[in-house]
Design brief:
The chain is of the alpha+beta class. The protein has twelve helices and 18 strands. The N terminus and C terminus are likely disordered.
């Protein structure tokens, strides 16, 4: 299932939709009416087998496990208290995302946005300066690591959490576009996909992307239809979204307990993603006996071993297939680079989070609709985080101080004036006008001869929160959830740990709007709602951090030379597949 399956599913669907001469049609067990029959209304039933495995993914069969600490808490953080949880089956990349994957992404951005919105390409560039250390000579990595072909199969680094999520969204769209091309419904048209006129899964499904159709579409059995229609999510042809794994999913996949279980018994508790308490291969007599199982630091100043016998054969990162996979077939879950996960960090998350599919970080969104209930047009401009741009420019001015010349100050003043205007438009709920002002700031900066213009362009680009061609989304509001019991607001990051009810000020209504109640970011802690968890050891770590239960955090806009990521995908339907007569295997 590693390769994308052939057109069997859609062929079967087409046959079911147009074959009106079959001996007996499938009938509804509720009404007895036949499916896929235009004579009685054309009720659809899809001949669906199971989810196709997307490129690069491995199925991780879910189950229960004890999440958290299995070794001494050497940092005394007490932030990974063991707790039994259940993780549903899901898909995980067998390797970290590589430099070549990221260069593919940058190339596509150049094709689509390069002429009109070069700032989008700038926003996606990894920070190659993360290699610099004040007392190390790492300039060759700054210049070569991302783009030289010698490193094309090495994990990409210098990527922050936001960039990793953007990559996952892009990957979703490219995979689903390829599926439609493969099934003969669309043609490749790279030169026609420019600016907002490019394929995304969401805009295709809501009818806002036409593309270059290869044929009329799928036969439509609806008697009120035109005879053909475009693919819908209900057809089961398109894949779910690529995304970052949750912390629970990543830790579960890293442990690979499926390799040492018998029926419902886990025969050995694991410290690392392999059996035993050794970091060396203990397969006595085997080819790799005595070699290090992962890429990490063995001791002070020992990054790779002794010349003539380089034990882990990697001074920095290593090619993503260099070390043996764990029992799920996943590579480098114990070293090479640490990896971003979806979760927002809280030290007491193990106590607060649910025992089923645990996750902290939910911010619920919904589509923007017109007054008649139709889906609003997709963005035809870039969307900027106005407060973020204001924060950046204001702090840049403070840091630069007396080094700014008259032209620099004029550019900054003009930008801040437009930001103030944009904020007023936002208060009036005139988002289009507010974003038009933000684009004027970018145009002002890119056309300026000021020496600081490149710095401002780079910084402002980092605060592009959405790009032209994407579907319009918004956070759900309190009013539309009046009678709902399971949630009442969009942002649930602070729930039980940082919200008003969980703080010591719960009795003081004046503090309800204070977002810094429990975590005084920048004063007593670096924890806030932008602190994201990353997991696993890396090439600069000691063996302790290769233990899957360890957890650390970093601001979502920061990156490191030791931090990469891999994607995951939700498994829909049966956890392991469908057996005979439609029953789970």
């Amino acid at each position: 299932m590693k390769q994308m399956v052939s057109s069997i599913r859609i062929t079967a669907f087409l046959a079911a939709a147009v074959s009106l001469a079959s001996c007996e049609k499938q009938r509804s067990s509720a009404t007895g009416w036949t499916y896929n029959d235009p004579d009685n209304g054309g009720y659809d039933r899809i001949e669906y087998t199971e989810q196709e495995t997307g490129p690069g993914l491995i199925l991780v069969e879910g189950g229960t496990f004890t999440m958290g600490r299995v070794e001494d808490d050497v940092n005394y953080t007490w932030d990974n208290i063991p707790r039994r949880v259940t993780v549903s089956s899901f898909y995980m990349d067998e390797t970290e995302v590589t430099n070549q994957h990221w260069l593919d992404y940058l190339h596509w951005l150049g094709l689509v946005y390069g002429d009109s919105y070069p700032e989008i390409i700038n926003r996606a560039l990894p920070d190659t300066l993360v290699w610099r250390e004040k007392l190390e000579y790492n300039e060759p990595y700054v210049e070569y690591y991302l783009r030289h072909p010698a490193y094309e199969d090495y994990p990409v680094v210098g990527v922050n959490w936001l960039q990793a999520n953007d990559f996952a969204a892009w990957r979703t769209d490219r995979v689903n576009e390829l599926i439609l091309v493969r099934e003969g419904l669309l043609n490749f048209n790279p030169t026609a996909q420019v600016d907002e006129e490019h394929f995304t899964t969401d805009t295709y499904l809501n009818g806002q992307y036409e593309g270059e159709a290869n044929k009329e579409g799928i036969p439509d059995v609806n008697p009120k239809g035109t005879g053909f229609r475009r693919v819908r999510m209900q057809d089961g042809i398109l894949l779910p979204r690529y995304r970052l794994p949750t912390e629970a999913e990543w830790e579960y996949a890293a442990l690979g307990l499926i390799g040492n279980s018998f029926q419902e018994l886990i025969t050995d508790r694991r410290t690392y993603p392999w059996n035993g308490h050794y970091v060396r291969n203990d397969d006595n007599g085997g080819k790799f006996f005595g070699t290090i199982r992962a890429n990490f630091v063995r001791g002070a100043g020992d990054m790779m071993g002794v010349a003539g016998y380089l034990n882990d054969n990697a001074d920095i990162t290593a090619p993503v297939y260099q070390y043996p996979p764990n029992d799920y077939g996943l590579y480098n879950m114990s070293g090479n680079v640490s990896e971003w996960v979806m979760d927002v960090y809280r030290p007491l998350s193990p106590e607060d989070k649910s025992e089923f599919r645990p996750f902290r970080g939910n911010v619920y969104q919904t589509r923007v609709l017109n007054s008649d209930g139709s889906i609003a047009d997709k963005y035809d401009y870039n969307v900027y985080d106005i407060e973020g741009v204001s924060y950046f420019i204001t702090n840049y001015q403070k840091q630069a101080g007396p080094r700014l010349v008259e032209g620099d100050l004029t550019l900054i003043d003009q930008s801040l004036q437009k930001i103030d205007q944009a904020k007023e438009k936002e208060k009036e709920r005139k988002s289009d006008e507010a974003q038009a002002l933000m684009q004027e700031i970018m145009d002002l900066v890119t056309s300026s001869d000021s020496p600081i213009a490149p710095d401002l362009r780079d910084g402002i680009s980092d605060y592009i929160s959405n790009t032209a061609g994407n579907e319009r989304m918004r956070d759900v509001n309190l009013e539309e959830k009046i009678d709902r019991r399971n949630y009442r607001k969009a942002d649930n990051i602070d729930y039980l740990d940082g919200d008003f009810q969980s703080s010591v000020f719960y009795h003081d209504p004046s503090r309800e709007t204070d977002n810094n109640r429990m975590y005084e970011w920048g004063q007593t802690t670096l924890i806030n709602n932008r602190a994201r968890v990353y997991k696993g050891g890396n090439w600069r770590d000691r063996a302790y951090f290769t233990i899957p239960g360890t957890r650390r955090f970093l601001d979502e806009r920061r990156s490191m030379a030791t931090l990469g990521f891999r994607c995951a995908m939700t498994r829909v339907g049966s956890p392991t597949g469908i057996g005979p007569k439609g029953r789970p295997e």
